[in-house]
Task: inverse folding
């Protein structure tokens, strides 16, 4: 029997240990720990990679999202529409910046439903916040059209989608700004918390820069109130190294996703995500391989008994299901999704025999 963790955090470091030790040694020996060259270099590389004008390394993606909304300037009562199928950080960033999150239904792709966005717009609505979930981008043509029609800001939660593209455009670059996470379990993850915001808008860049560095602008002049949420230089240097290898990492995930699709699409009991090559407009980086499964809890138990760890995301609840946060709305599609969803391992360092073992065991569960 194999023992396959859902995510082997140790491998993130151990697979490139020598190189990382050298990187850490270089940054630390130079004494450039905070707001130094390694951070600037990474920001430049990230803006080039995503094809946007500005990138700012921040403490984590949640801070990045909050800083964006604060830069836009939410006023009390301002509403922002988001998917209920997302991490709590999407909604909390709106609240912490002074606004009100309005979670809505998902469509057949399990991403935010564009009709539900239109239905939720009222005189208090100021923005739409799509989450580019599991490495896949929402229908941005429709979302941008809706936003333009109603003069709303679009801020992308691109925490899970660095490198994902829709019609050639990168996640994070569709609206006024977007934020990306480098949490260790992300496709590109650093050795602790880390994130970035990306934008083509100079005013948002300027204000976000001040907000992330105690109110200081790029020249170090104090211009406003701010906080401390700066990506550490050591993390930035680690991420610069990873960014060079990133296309190959995405490629391996897409290979594994294609393999899972080929093997598992025979099972009517599963609703799988689209395979990598099906939609030429949507380049999915497969941050996660998540599907809906009949008898999900039994499948999870069976896989566990066979040495395969799986994950049910976010305590198995959509945003609107957290009554403790004051939500009262009912969203049946999201609720149904969370009764059936499961994620299986898809890390780039998985061996081929581990991937086939996982597929074998899922098939044998339904065929036994
Ligand atoms: C969809 C989504 N939004 C936001 C975040 C928050 O990212 P971070 O942990 O870097 O703050 C995450 C991280 O898990 C996420 O998956």
Result:
């Amino acid at each position: 029997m194999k023992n396959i963790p859902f995510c082997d955090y140790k491998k993130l470091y151990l697979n490139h240990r020598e190189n990382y030790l050298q990187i850490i040694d270089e940054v630390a020996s130079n004494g450039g720990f905070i707001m130094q060259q390694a951070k600037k270099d990474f920001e430049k590389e990230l803006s080039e990679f995503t094809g946007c004008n500005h990138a700012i390394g921040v403490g984590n993606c949640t801070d990045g999202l909050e800083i964006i909304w604060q830069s836009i300037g939410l006023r009390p009562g301002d509403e922002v529409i988001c998917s209920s199928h997302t991490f709590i950080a999407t909604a909390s960033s709106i609240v912490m910046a002074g606004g009100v999150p309005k979670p809505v239904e998902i469509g057949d792709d399990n991403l935010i439903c564009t009709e539900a966005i239109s239905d939720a717009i009222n005189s208090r609505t100021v923005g739409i916040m799509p989450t580019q979930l599991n490495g896949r981008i929402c229908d941005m043509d429709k979302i941008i059209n809706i936003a333009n029609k109603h003069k709303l800001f679009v801020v992308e939660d691109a925490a899970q989608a660095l490198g994902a593209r829709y019609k050639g455009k990168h996640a994070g670059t569709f609206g006024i700004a977007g934020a990306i996470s480098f949490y260790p379990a992300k496709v590109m993850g650093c050795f602790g918390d880390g994130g970035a915001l990306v934008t083509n808008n100079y005013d948002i860049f300027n204000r976000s820069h001040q907000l992330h560095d105690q109110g200081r602008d790029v020249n170090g002049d104090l211009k406003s109130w701010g906080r401390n949420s700066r990506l550490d230089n050591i993390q930035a240097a680690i991420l610069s190294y990873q960014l060079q290898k990133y296309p190959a990492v995405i490629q391996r995930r897409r290979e594994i996703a294609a393999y899972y699709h080929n093997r598992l699409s025979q099972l009517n009991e599963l609703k799988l995500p689209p395979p990598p090559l099906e939609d030429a407009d949507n380049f999915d980086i497969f941050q996660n391989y998540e599907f809906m499964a009949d008898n999900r809890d039994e499948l999870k138990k069976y896989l566990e008994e066979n040495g395969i760890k799986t994950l049910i995301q976010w305590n198995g609840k959509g945003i609107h299901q957290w009554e403790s946060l004051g939500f009262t709305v009912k969203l049946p599609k999201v609720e149904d999704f969370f009764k059936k969803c499961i994620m299986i391992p898809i890390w780039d360092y998985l061996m081929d025999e581990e991937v086939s073992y996982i597929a074998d065991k899922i098939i044998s569960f339904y065929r036994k």
In short: Residues 60-62, 86-87, 89-90, 131, 157, 159-160, 181, 183, 195 surround pyridoxal-5'-phosphate (CB under 6 Å). The chain has a mean pLDDT of 97. Residues 207 and 281 are 33 Å apart (CA to CA).
